Input
Amino acid sequence: MPPETQAPLLRVSALTKRFGGFTALDNVSVEIRPGERFGLIGPNGSGKTTLINCISGAFRTEPGTVTFRDEDITRLQPHMRTRRGIARSFQIPRPFKSMTVSENLMVALDFAAVTDEAASAPQRRDTMMSILTRMGLASKADVSATKLSQVELRKMELARAMATHPKLLISDEAMAGLSSSEVDEVLDLLMSLASQDITIIMIEHIMQAVMRPKSWLTSACRMPTLALSLAINDLDAGYGAVKALRGVTLHVEAGETVALLGTNGNGKSTLMKCVAGLVRPQRGSMSLTIDGMTHDLARLSTEAIVDLGVALVPEGRRLFPKLTVLENLMLGAFRKAARRNIDRNLALAFETFPALKGLQSQLAGTMSGGQQQMLAIARALMSSPRLLLIDEPSVGLSPLLVSQTIAKIGELNQHLGLTVLMAEQNFNQAIRIADRGYIIVHGEIVVAADSVDELRGNDIVKRLYLGGIA
Ligand SMILES: Nc1ncnc2c1ncn2[C@@H]1O[C@H](COP(=O)(O)OP(=O)(O)O)[C@@H](O)[C@H]1O
Ligand SMILES: [Mg+2]
Output
């Protein structure tokens, strides 16, 4: 029977999960049918792992229900859900380090208590070995878990989940940080499990990885980008007697790519610096609402603004030329919150810019302009941003590189759910990826357009950019 005609295996209805005043999941409903390979895709912080924790029982939910094989399991303890056939692998593999691979698996077998209580030790060892064989780990059975490579650890995570004989296997970012051939290995493995009647939910924040074999997923759910809103109102800023911004009013909403367009010296960088806390406005207001809390950016330090999830890719890159690529990247993770996610963000940076991976020990100053721009953006990714401010990414690049850089920024928005405010002089390139835009002239917003079409049709724009005087 094709999956869509069958009753759902798992039904999540109107699930809400709050942590204090912060709503991590807001009224989420998902249905997964037997035999599906279901992708759960969304940016950092969109609630993917929280949803999995609610399905597996690690978190209590209220309100909302979770139904598995027509049984309401909302109030069941995690281990009871495991016995009903729900297994998960963890984003960060947590093997028992003092144990061998086979001992790790035995623990999982005992935990699920799915093997016959009376099963003899040799029978249990057979079950365990057959799982290890299917996972391609048979030769590692007696190796200490600490000796496994990253991809082997991921496989052991999946093997431990398989030891509970799941009907539903939830794989939490099983591929983050792996090379592309390793990703293929893990995908093949998941595919072989799927063909053995196991329904699979796969979580990925790196959408490219999920989408690589396009036919892999039977369906997918995009987790929403969380509420984020930048509101700038009547802002003045300047340098001594120089007035750089005059009454600027502008807003950026979650998931958007907004272009701030203007030629040289019109105030674009000043506005970006104000948002990042590097230039203090003289008048007006600037607030960022994120996860339900509104912050007055004019009162916060640059560091506090970074902590909120705002990253600036400055004009001219501002790399440290005498430091290596890796050292420059690490400087992007200087805040405590970002340091906790270094491995994951580094993997994300290299996934986004594979060319940087081989250049890690090269001095930033010796790289080409295109490579430096990649590095500057990658460095910003190291701080786990939600709002990316990019100041003139195209400056100093060849037309081909401009086009590639702009496309890459579009991908960051589409694949990672990053909200983007981009300052550009290159109108035609910027509108390739922008949802809408503003034109700034002499520090004033002279056009605020709700769409790219509206921008193109605007008389001022036509005069400035499209054939008129530049
Ligand atoms: N550090 C500074 N000191 C004095 N004037 C500045 C400084 N930075 C920018 N300006 C002036 O502010 C105005 C806006 O500049 P800027 O924000 O850099 O524009 P854009 O990024 O659009 O090129 C210009 O008149 C510029 O000369
Ligand atoms: Mg500028």
Q: What stands out?
A: The chain has 18 helices and 19 strands. The mean pLDDT is 86.
